[in-house]
Design goal:
By secondary structure, the chain is an alpha+beta fold. The chain has a 7-stranded antiparallel β-sheet with strand order 1-2-3-5-6-7-4, sandwiched between helices. β2 and β3 form a beta hairpin. The protein is rod-shaped, with a radius of gyration of 60 Å. The N and C termini lie far apart (202 Å).
């Protein structure tokens, strides 16, 4: 008869030992074959308090895109020279105007009479007179117009004691006096240059100087019409229309008035004009040959 032995804890372990041993030897291969070990990933860095948090990632650049690149910025327009030109023009205009005003109001002092500078200036003025269109036109008809320098018939000793040929002579006075006489029409044209020494108001010829010239020219016409070839001024009317500027050429035109003409008296009228033909002075004079007074005959070249 079979007797059953009760199992104890030790006997149960002995029964299970072969199974544990087989499992113990296969376990490492299963663990190494199925489980992969990795080192722990480092924690993400904390954002710096001074740096802004990173933004979203930029999209990848498409190097094969067909979109054309943006055009370059336009070039700035070139700077205009107009402001510089305007400023230069206004500067030159201001300087020129100021210089003209200064020379008109306060011209330079004329040289002393008979000095080398005075003689050189007289020569230059006579050369300028020869180039005037009026003088050339009158000289082109010598059969009608006879020319001579004023007071050329007077001797130098007598010329120095006359107002218009003595104290008023030289470049500072009546520097040029060219007489053109028309014998058929009994009229005269006289070219006169008023120098800077004849000014009354700065830059303007004194009214007495222009009246003296008008008296001389009108009297010259009367004397050449009188049979006695002499005469004096009995009346002179002068009307000033425009200022006569110093250091310029002017033209005096004079002719006899037939009305009221007699053997011993004659009216003569005339005008003083600038080189553009504008009338500056008008004059009318009565000239007579006085009775009971013996006057010397005035020569042809007066």
């Amino acid at each position: 008869m079979l007797r059953l032995r009760p199992l104890t804890f030790r006997s149960s372990l002995n029964l299970l030992r072969p199974q544990l041993t087989s499992h113990r030897t296969a376990l490492p291969y299963r663990l190494y074959a199925t489980v992969e070990t990795h080192p722990p990933a480092p924690p993400p860095p904390l954002p710096s308090p001074t740096q802004p948090p990173p933004g979203p990632p930029s999209p990848p650049s498409d190097t094969t895109s067909t979109t054309p690149p943006p055009p370059p910025p336009p070039k700035p327009p070139p700077r205009s020279l107009r402001p510089l030109i305007h400023a230069t023009a206004f500067l030159l205009l201001g300087l020129t105007t100021g210089q003209l005003i200064r020379l008109t109001i306060l011209p330079p002092a004329p040289p002393p009479p008979s000095s080398p500078a005075d003689l050189a200036l007289l020569t230059a003025l006579h050369t300028s007179a020869d180039r005037l269109a009026l003088i050339r036109a009158l000289r082109s008809d010598p059969q009608t117009w006879r020319e001579w320098p004023a007071y050329s018939s007077l001797p130098s000793s007598e010329r120095a004691h006359r107002l218009t040929s003595g104290p008023l002579s030289g470049s500072r006075g009546l520097a040029v006096q060219r007489v053109f006489w028309n014998g058929r029409e009994k009229r005269a044209i006289v070219l006169v240059y008023f120098g800077g020494g004849l000014g009354g108001w700065p830059g303007v010829v004194h009214g007495g100087a222009t009246a003296t010239v008008m008296d001389e020219v009108l009297g010259r016409v009367a004397v050449r019409n009188f049979e006695a070839k002499t005469g004096v001024t009995a009346n002179l009317e002068v009307g000033y229309r425009r200022p006569v500027v110093a250091n310029r050429f002017y033209v005096v035109r004079a002719e006899a008035v037939e009305e009221g003409r007699g053997e011993r008296k004659m009216w003569v009228r005339g005008t003083l004009e600038d080189m553009e033909g504008r009338v500056c002075v008008e004059a009318k004079g009565l000239f007579v040959v006085p009775k009971g007074v013996e006057l010397g005959e005035i020569g042809e070249g007066w």
